[in-house]
Design brief:
Layout lengths: L2 H21 L40 E2 L12 E4 L8 E4 L3 E6 L4 E12 L2 E4 L13 E3 L12 E5 L2 E10 L11 E9 L5 E10 L12 E7 L19 E6 L6 E2 L6 E4 L3 E7 L3 E7 L5 E7 L7 E9 L5 E12 L2 H4 L28 H17 L3 H15 L1 H16 L1 H10 L4 H15 L8 H19 L21 E9 L3 E5 H21 L5 H18 L5 H33 L13
Helix pairs in contact: 1-8, 3-4, 3-8, 4-11, 5-8, 6-7, 9-10, 9-11
């Protein structure tokens, strides 16, 4: 194999590896499973009965510290007063959600998507560890460490779940002021919406500003600890990730947030803030209030890359205030997100949210991903098996690229045929590299060969390869899509054929068969290419390329989705047959050339 082909292979390694690196993230240690309390069913229109004892100690029957210092005697502390609610969790259902609410803090402890399954069970969109907080807790001021965990009174009113609790502040003597205010937290759900609304209403019992204020902030609403489904850390990471995006007011594009030391803070007005996973997103859409927004990532938590969003509200200058937050909690599917651009298509009458901009794509190759996605979905309609669709699409791509690859192979073959003459030039001018280059350039010109002819066709294929990689790595419809029962039950996950009772370095404790097939096919493909095109002097270098590069890809792609490895393996298989055919034709042409005879002129005599 000549140096230009080697250059092409090196470029392919660099480009594809960069493409994979920017789309995959390796995570922290695997999480510990979290036990969930059994929920209590509640029908719409009813109020949950008091079915258990309070979480408060007897001495705190009417008062509990609920913020900053956790000391009911400290001046400035917030305490819950008056009638308390029951602490028993309860379940609320919509056609799309099954939600377990926790009256302690008026929060959500489980959020399942009914129409999206993991092993036949609805996907859990809250990924929690043993010490994780629930989602949608409130904090006093801009504190983010001690949630207001008073037990709220609650009621279910049709499509609304309402939590209420009275609070007072302590004065300088550590006593309540006698002036209470109520915090009402209302969750409102649409009939068939992945969007829901959270209203925070505060009302003072007297005509004064609500006294809840710490360092010029009234409260912080949090989404924590992480969006599901649950995942583990490297090496068995299933190519999972979590990313923050912000769409600022007035901007037509999203901005991916790079956290510094696990934190990001902004006071700029935003249209929305998204925490995006591979297949699902939690997108927060605050109202026009100037919230201080904090994003955090904790790599040392009990779950991988714990990710949280915080919205801190400035102090309230009136006796009554209602703040509105909306959240999209669901799949990364454009048709589900785009309905919030048209008020007639959603239950909340909202418009122009542009949530579909939170969808991941390969930046400038997003348009190509969409084309490939459309073709794959069309093939699925004809043959309802995405594995078969990937194989057919791979054949179609190879067919479409055949003129380019054929030209590249022909150019490489011509370059290979010049190897003896190039060796003669090097032998003739062993100590004069400049003269060697001049003579070789003259040889190319004489033989009408473009030295980059074998490399440029490969570069043409890179955008398609990278776009197809991006598509197969996160195409939502591949999630849970079976190809071969018993072997590849889910094209979005690695094909695990055996689980070891121990972990192997870089590989984990699972045996995946497809990466092995892919690696063997890649080695075989490179060997037949090497045999066809490589001179003896290049054999040493090519041995390293033949075995070194496939082994590198084996480790890089070992935990990749099986749909992606299927594509690469089929691509290698087609390339092998194509190269075998090309080699055979080359041999036949050589034999025909060796059997050529010079035939006579008009009189039939041989010369």
């Amino acid at each position: 194999m000549d140096k230009n082909t080697i250059l092409a292979i090196v470029l392919s390694v660099v480009v594809i590896t960069v493409g994979m690196t920017i789309q995959t993230t390796f995570f922290a240690p695997p999480p510990t499973a979290t036990p969930v309390q059994s929920p209590v069913q509640s029908a719409p229109g009813t109020t949950q009965a008091d079915a258990s004892s309070s979480l408060l100690a007897p001495a705190q029957n009417a008062m509990v510290s609920a913020n900053i210092a956790w000391d009911s005697g400290l001046p400035g502390s917030l305490v819950a007063v008056g009638e308390k609610g029951t602490a028993t969790p309860f379940t609320y259902k919509t056609p799309l959600f099954t939600i377990e609410f926790n009256p302690v803090g008026g929060s959500i402890s489980s959020f399942k998507l009914n129409q999206h399954l993991d092993d036949g069970v609805p996907v859990e969109l809250l990924f929690q560890g043993e010490e994780s907080n629930d989602a949608f807790l409130m904090y006093a001021g801009n504190d983010k460490s001690n949630p207001i965990d008073a037990t709220f009174r609650h009621a279910i009113q049709g499509n609304k779940v309402v939590f209420s609790q009275d609070f007072e502040m302590l004065n300088a003597e550590g006593k309540t002021t006698g002036e209470s205010f109520v915090i009402n937290k209302t969750f409102t759900f649409g009939e068939n919406d992945y969007l829901f609304q959270v209203d925070i209403n505060m009302q003072n019992s007297v005509n004064k500003s609500i006294p809840l204020s710490f360092e010029n902030f009234a409260y912080t609403l949090a989404f924590e600890p992480q969006i599901g489904p649950s995942f583990t850390s490297a090496p068995n990471n299933n190519y999972n990730y979590r990313r923050f995006y912000i769409k600022e007011d007035g901007s037509s594009k999203k901005k991916q947030i790079k956290l510094s030391n696990g934190l990001y803070n902004t006071t700029k007005p935003v249209s929305w803030v998204a925490l995006a996973g591979k297949y699902f997103s939690m997108i927060a859409i605050p109202d026009a209030t100037s919230y201080a927004i904090s994003l955090s990532e904790n790599t040392e938590a009990s779950i991988p890359m714990e990710s949280s969003m915080y919205f801190s509200r400035p102090s309230i200058k009136s006796a009554s205030q209602t703040d509105t937050f909306r959240f999209y909690a669901g799949p990364q599917i454009k048709s589900y997100m785009s309905i919030y651009d048209d008020p007639s298509l959603n239950s909340f009458g909202v418009s122009n949210l542009q949530l579909d901009k939170a969808l991941d794509s390969s930046s400038w190759l997003g348009w190509l991903e969409n084309i490939l996605k459309w073709i794959l979905n069309f093939l699925y309609k004809l043959i309802p098996n995405y594995g078969v669709g990937i194989i057919i699409l791979t054949f179609l791509l190879k067919l479409a690229l055949y003129p380019v690859t054929k030209k590249g192979m022909e150019s490489t073959a011509k370059m290979s045929s010049l190897t003896p003459k190039m060796n003669e030039i090097k032998a003739k001018y062993p100590d004069n590299p400049t003269k060697q280059n001049e003579e070789i350039a003259e040889l190319y010109k004489k033989e009408k060969i473009n030295p980059m002819g074998g490399c440029l066709p490969m570069l043409v294929q890179f955008p398609i390869l990278i776009a197809f990689y991006g598509l197969l790595n996160k195409h939502f419809e591949l999630r849970g899509a079976m190809f071969i029962p018993g072997w590849i039950p889910d094209l979005s996950l690695p094909d695990t054929v055996f689980t070891f009772p121990f972990s192997l370095p870089f590989l984990g404790n699972e045996l995946h068969l497809l990466p092995i097939i892919y690696t063997v096919s890649m080695i075989f493909s490179m060997k037949i290419t090497q045999n066809a095109q490589t001179a003896g002097s290049q054999q040493g270098m090519m041995k390293m390329m033949t075995y070194g590069m496939p082994l590198m890809f084996f480790f890089v792609l070992y935990s990749a989705p099986s749909g992606l490895i299927l594509y690469w393996s089929v691509m290698n298989a087609i390339s092998i047959f194509q190269q075998i055919y090309t080699n055979k034709k080359k041999v036949e042409q050589s034999e025909e050339a060796s059997n050529v005879r010079t035939f006579p002129g008009p009189k039939g005599k041989r010369k």
